[in-house]
Every structure is written in structure tokens, then in C-alpha cells.
Write a structure and sequence with these properties.
The strands form 4 sheets. A two-stranded antiparallel ribbon has the order 1-2. The protein has a two-stranded antiparallel sheet with strand order 3-4. Strands 5-6 form a two-stranded antiparallel ribbon. The longest helix is centred in the last third of the chain and has 32 residues, at 202-233. It has 9 helices and 8 strands. With 302 residues, the chain is mainly alpha-helical.
Length: 302
């Protein structure tokens, strides 16, 4: 496994830098708010339910951040020296093509990224959240980052609905929940005040922002899962799926193994569990015998 140098970790574009910092700051903040405000209202301290939710929250949050970090650190870019070694020793096939920008011969499924300005092995797409390309070596971490982000947001949304609709803010007594339509009946003088919202409490504002972030997370992660699942299921990468080029499609299990590695049944536990990939990123075995010139031309121009 090759890691990116520290100088290349920081994204070049301002938008990507902001999104990266957003993940690093918001995920721990939302975790703390849910654990400190919502969880004590759902379960009593020290009960099995409280301990389970606490451990579950820690597991999901740690996997989001650790997979996000590994996705950034693990390098899928092409090493020109290694490419020359492959060529000099004849360890290449006729499917290799030359990158006009890097001026090196690259294997099938590798393509040049304009944002990173480098060729990437098994390049799927450039991720604006991580600020790097998702390719052969780091797709596993991107996959689990998105999955755990979606699961965390889904569970948080359910807990938040219980906190709002059933518990009504619990001991925090969210004021706007009682004045949501702008009406309040005063029993003392039987007077109906219209649009007397009052001022929301501090916790109410914090939780409103948290709830909005949870909705953003579940929509963004859900969209990415829907967009990429068909690609993963067919054992392809984005530009291959776009042109319905399923040259390397195998069974669903084998397709998942090509992204998650030979020990994929354990990889969900932690990104630090080693799981060697069945391919080295240079040599790919097509499921059908021949490959047309159109496919080679397609890879060259992507």
C-alpha cells in the first residue's frame, strides 16, 4: 500500500479544501451534540440501551472519519518508474495506452485526472469531498465512508424524530415546538396571541442546525450510494459504466472483492484491517476473450 506525501494531501481547489474541513469539523460536532443532548433523553445513563447506543455512535463515527482519512492518504496514482519497469520486463499487454499529458504508458482502466494532474490506476472519479481521485487502491475506503455516513445519518434522523415529536425536547423544553403555528393560548386571561413565537432556546438553535446537517448528510450519501452501486455491482468504473462497457464484469461477489479485497467480509469492521486486492492495478483479466479497438481508444481519451 502506497501513501500520498503530506504535500499532496491538501487539495488545490478552495471548494475541496472547505469540504474536507467541513467533514473533519462537522462529524465530531454532530456526534457530540447527539451524545450529549439527544441520547440522555432517549435512555437512562448506564442502562444497556444507553451503552449500546453510545458504542454504536462511537463505532459509526470512528469508521466515517477513519475511512475518510484513509481514502485521502492511500495513493492510487501511477508511479512512472514502476511503469517503465513493467515495460522493460515485458510485463504489459497490447491494451496499454500512452497518456498524452504525462507521456507515460499506462495500463487498462487507468486515466489522467485534470484536477490532480496525474494518471490514476483504475480511476473511477475525482471526489470533491476528499480532494483526490478514487481509484484502484482507495475505492474500498470511499465505499465504506459513504455507507457509514448514510447509516449514521439515518439512525441520527430516527433518534432526532423521537427527540422532537415524542419527547418534545425533553428537559430542554424546546419553545418553538409549542408555538410552531404561531398561536399560544393564555389560560389566565383567555387571550389568543397571534405570532407570539418568543425567543428559541440555545439548545433549540443548536439542534435545529444539527438536524439540518443530518438531512444534508443522508441526502448526499444516499445519492452517492444510488449512483455508485450499479457501477460496483457490474465490476466497472464510472466511465466504463457510462458507455456500458462491462469487459471485466464477473459475479457480484467477485466484483465486490475487486474493490474490497480478498478479506472483504472483515473490512466493514475497520479500514485498518488488511485486505489484499485480487488485482495489482496493472493487469486485468477480461471476462470475454477479445477487446475491440474502440475500447482502447475510449480509455485513451478519457
Amino acid at each position: 500500500m502506497k501513501f500520498r506525501s503530506l504535500k499532496k494531501i491538501w487539495p488545490k481547489k478552495k471548494k475541496e479544501r472547505l469540504l474536507m474541513l467541513f467533514i473533519f469539523c462537522v462529524v465530531p460536532a454532530v456526534y457530540k451534540i447527539l451524545m450529549e443532548i439527544v441520547l440522555p433523553e432517549l435512555s437512562d445513563y448506564g442502562t444497556p440501551s444507553y451503552i449500546f447506543q453510545r458504542v454504536l455512535g462511537l463505532f459509526l463515527t470512528s469508521n466515517i472519519l477513519s475511512n475518510f482519512v484513509m481514502c485521502i492518504l492511500v495513493d492510487s496514482t501511477i508511479d512512472p518508474k514502476r511503469m517503465r519497469d513493467q515495460l522493460e520486463h515485458g510485463r504489459h499487454s497490447e491494451d496499454w495506452h500512452k497518456c498524452d499529458v504525462c507521456r507515460v504508458s499506462t495500463p487498462p482502466r487507468a486515466s489522467h485526472c485534470k484536477s490532480c494532474d496525474v494518471c490514476v490506476l483504475g480511476r473511477d472519479h475525482h471526489c470533491i469531498v476528499t480532494g483526490c481521485c478514487i481509484g484502484h487502491a482507495n475505492y474500498r475506503y470511499f465505499f465504506y465512508f459513504v455507507i457509514y455516513l448514510f447509516l449514521s445519518c439515518l439512525i441520527s434522523m430516527i433518534s432526532s424524530f423521537i427527540f422532537i415529536c415524542v419527547l418534545r425536547g425533553g428537559r430542554h423544553n424546546f419553545r418553538l415546538l409549542h408555538n410552531i403555528l404561531g398561536f399560544r393560548f393564555l389560560k389566565n386571561n383567555a387571550k389568543l396571541d397571534i405570532f407570539d413565537f418568543g425567543y428559541p432556546a440555545k439548545y433549540e438553535l443548536v439542534f435545529a442546525a444539527t438536524f439540518a446537517l443530518i438531512w444534508i448528510g443522508i441526502c448526499a450519501a444516499g445519492y452517492m450510494i444510488l449512483e455508485h452501486w450499479s457501477v460496483i455491482r457490474n465490476g466497472s468504473i464510472c466511465f466504463e459504466f457510462k458507455f456500458q462497457n462491462f469487459l471485466y464484469k464477473q459475479g457480484v461477489r467477485s466484483n465486490l472483492e475487486s474493490f474490497l479485497g480478498r478479506r472483504m467480509k472483515w473490512t466493514w469492521i475497520s479500514p485498518f484491517i488488511p485486505s489484499p486486492l485480487p488485482h495489482d492495478g496493472f493487469h486485468w483479466e477480461p471476462t470475454d476473450g477479445d477487446r475491440g479497438a474502440g475500447d482502447r481508444g475510449l480509455e485513451k481519451n478519457i
